[in-house]
Design goal:
Blueprint: H1 3-9, E1 10-15, H2 24-30, E2 39-40, E3 65-70, E4 74-77, E5 80-83, E6 94-96, H3 104-113, H4 122-134, E7 142-143, H5 150-155, H6 165-168, H7 172-178, H8 181-184, H9 190-195, H10 200-212, H11 222-241, H12 250-256, H13 266-270, H14 272-282, H15 288-301, H16 305-333, H17 339-348, H18 363-388, H19 441-447, E8 452-455, H20 461-482, E9 493-496, E10 507-510, E11 515-518, H21 527-539, H22 550-561, H23 567-570, H24 578-592, H25 596-599, H26 602-616, H27 642-649, H28 652-655, H29 657-675
Helix pairs in contact: 10-14, 10-15, 11-12, 12-14, 16-18, 21-29, 22-24
Length: 680
């Protein structure tokens, strides 16, 4: 903003004399207290000060910590201008004066350009900590830091608040990675709730609310992340303060007051599960499952005999009324003497319809049938009463915390990505190509043009040396045999044992960060495969969409364009001929790939071949595929849907088109190496 815009927006200034800026986090989280003195902004650069604020001689000095406030941040009082209770300033509106000679506007711009360490800028603090941790290592991270590594995540040891968003949003991939439930919405500790005097049912609902809160924002946009964090903050405050179920009704106000999301958008943005439980706590009708949860909460809270009495009384009165109605029907039926009386009874006194009434002809049969049916209704009412009176809220219950007892959980299901044993680092064989005797992080950044290199905390210097040397050799060979300019790597980052989360994968490509992570023990030997993923992403313009890779987006577009015919691609019971499927596939492709030249490109024809392979498998018949149930276990599998069958048999990894693209690319690189009598 310009100076004129600055002084038009900001009208007052508060000098934080007592805390010297130490109260920043509290003010950002909870807002200002009521009645803190506010002074008019001094005149600078010839601009007129605000006419609605009393002028003062106040002028900040070097080292002062100040807050600048817009008009909505303060109120006019009898004794001058004061802060407004609960007003939360922008994190950038609090800063240190760095020179006696600078105006507030210049100080403001300086603080924006170079975040002040004393302000607790979360990204700056993490950067300093990472550098400190590596200062005694021979091999260090190089290039621009790529966010999201395990060691970086460990540095974000506090919950993220809305005051941290400006810093985090400087890197979209970091924002996507960090803005998740575990980072913004603390878990509810039942034992702590019990010790704090919270009602058991209230604590139970707190857990359910937190469980229902979505795991991440509904969209990968800055606005969605801001809404997500602010809603989490607001909900957390209510949950922290609540000690009874009634206190939780404030959640509905937050959800629907229109301050964070539109008044009618809460359910759409945060999901039906959270909406239903919030609405049920408020007293609205939702689903039976949520209502049952709500009733359980009240039961866990406990109910005394005095509280039970009116409920039990109403249940008894309701049951007696049901029984009396059926007994009156029986008594009046026994007074029937003629067919006319029977007709009159049907019209005035009968309590049910249907059944065998149409087949009853005589008075005796009618009285017998009515007595039988009404007696069954009476017995049902008595049985239901006996069951209900033992349930909440018709019976006394003591407060119950048994729901909070820790339960043993079964082992989680393993990833669908299979474990593939790699060649140990010391046995990697390379024949031919440029001799690579030594390499370090500068080789990766300056000669291979990678944007960054990140080393995991547990990768020792001697291991880093070997990892980097083998990696440099692999990239040099790959670019040489494919005749690719090394400058393509300017968009790619490499990490060794820094981004993995354990499990079976030897290496992983992260589209949101354009980064390849090679695991500490098994990553080497996977470079061509993961670089193939990067190339797939590069072909798609390095998009950060839900289908970031070219192969994925291409396949998704084609399948969606098939319309109702896509059942012939993904359905397990469909058996089209291969020629027929190729025809509808061709028609679909012509819709989504308008130019002839693009349809004839190598990438296009390759992906089409992969689609056919996914559909018909490697051993499919040329004419018509057979049903799953019609094959011999001892012979090769002949299937009508490779995609369907192998997704069931081996998991999603093997049939994923992005993986097929990468494996195809990997095989192509090996073939090109073999042509030149080279090995890597």
């Amino acid at each position: 903003m310009t100076e004129k815009e600055f002084y038009k927006k900001y009208k007052a200034i508060h000098k934080d004399i007592r805390t010297k800026g130490k109260s920043k986090d509290s003010i950002l989280a909870n807002g200002f207290k009521e009645g803190v003195n506010v002074n008019a902004l001094p005149i600078y650069k010839g601009f007129e000060k605000a006419t609605d604020i009393i002028a003062t001689r106040y002028k900040p000095r070097k080292g002062d910590f100040v807050w600048i406030l817009p008009k909505q941040g303060f109120t006019e009082g009898r004794n001058g201008y004061k802060t407004k209770q609960g007003y939360k300033p922008n994190p950038n509106d609090g800063f240190f004066i760095i020179s006696d000679d600078w105006s507030l506007y210049e100080n403001y711009c300086a603080n924006l350009a170079t975040p002040n360490d004393d302000l607790g800028d979360i990204d700056t603090e993490v950067e300093k900590a990472l550098q400190e941790k590596q200062k005694n290592r021979e091999f260090k991270d190089a290039g621009k830091r790529v966010h999201g590594s395990r060691k970086e995540q460990a540095m974000y040891n506090k919950l993220i608040s809305s005051s941290d968003l400006n810093s985090i949003e400087q890197d979209e991939a970091t924002a996507i990675e960090l803005i998740k439930k575990d980072k913004v919405f603390p878990k509810v500790d039942p034992q702590a709730e019990k010790e704090n005097g919270t009602d058991s049912g209230c604590a139970f609902l707190k857990v359910k609310v937190r469980q229902a809160f979505p795991a991440k924002p509904h969209a990968n946009t800055k606005e969605a992340r801001e809404q997500y964090v602010k809603m989490a903050e607001a909900f957390t405050k209510v949950l922290t303060d609540a000690i009874s179920i009634t206190d939780l009704q404030q959640l509905d106000t937050i959800a629907n007051n229109g301050e964070i999301v539109g008044k009618h958008d809460f359910g759409m943005i945060f999901g039906k599960a959270l909406r239903n439980i919030v609405f049920t706590i408020k007293g609205y009708r939702t689903t039976s499952a949520v209502k049952e949860t709500y009733m359980k909460a009240h039961q866990y809270s406990g109910i005394t005999k005095e509280q039970v009495a009116p409920h039990a009384k109403r249940l008894k009165e309701y049951t007696d009324k049901r029984i009396k109605r059926q007994q009156d029907c029986i008594d009046s039926a026994k007074q029937i003497l003629s067919p006319a009386d029977m007709k009159r009874h049907k019209q005035n006194d009968l309590t049910f319809q249907g059944g065998m009434l149409s087949s009853v002809r005589t008075v005796e049969d009618y009285v017998r049938y009515v007595t039988q049916v009404c007696t069954r209704f009476i017995n049902d009412a008595k049985r239901e009463y006996n069951e209900q009176k033992e349930r909440f809220p018709y019976k006394e219950f003591k407060p119950d915390w048994s729901w909070a007892e820790t339960k043993k959980t079964s082992n989680s299901k393993s990833s669908s990505k299979p474990k593939i044993e790699a060649v140990p680092l010391s046995y990697i064989k390379r024949t031919g190509g440029l001799l690579i005797e030594e390499a370090d992080e500068n080789t990766v950044i300056k000669k291979l043009h990678f944007k960054s290199l990140t080393l995991g905390n547990y990768v020792k210097d001697d291991e880093a040396r070997e990892h980097i040397r083998h990696f440099v050799a692999a990239i040099v060979d790959l670019c040489e045999v494919l005749d690719i300019n090394l400058s393509i790597n300017e968009a790619l980052a490499i990490a060794f044992g820094a981004f993995g989360r354990g499990g079976k994968a030897m290496a992983t490509y992260y589209p949101t960060r354009q980064l390849i992570n090679l695991t500490k023990r098994n990553g080497d030997g996977s470079v061509a495969h993961e670089w193939g993923h990067f190339f797939d992403h590069y072909l798609n313009g390095l998009e950060l969409s839900t289908k970031p890779l070219r192969s994925e987006s291409y396949l998704n577009t084609i399948i969606e364009s098939l319309g109702y015919k896509k059942k012939y691609f993904i359905g397990g019971n469909s058996s089209p001929t291969k020629d027929w499927f190729k025809d509808i596939l061709k028609t679909s492709i012509n819709k989504v790939v308008p130019t002839f030249q693009e349809r004839q490109s190598v990438v296009h024809t390759s992906i089409v071949s992969l689609i056919l392979m996914l559909r018909f498998g490697y051993y499919a018949l040329d004419d018509k595929a057979v049903s799953y149930n019609d094959f011999d276990e001892t012979k090769k599998r002949r299937t009508d849907s490779y995609l369907y069958h192998y997704s069931k048999l081996q998991g999603a990894y093997w049939k994923d088109i992005a993986e097929m693209f990468a494996r195809s690319f990997e095989c192509y690189v090996y073939d090109k190496l073999k042509e030149k009598n080279r090995v890597n």
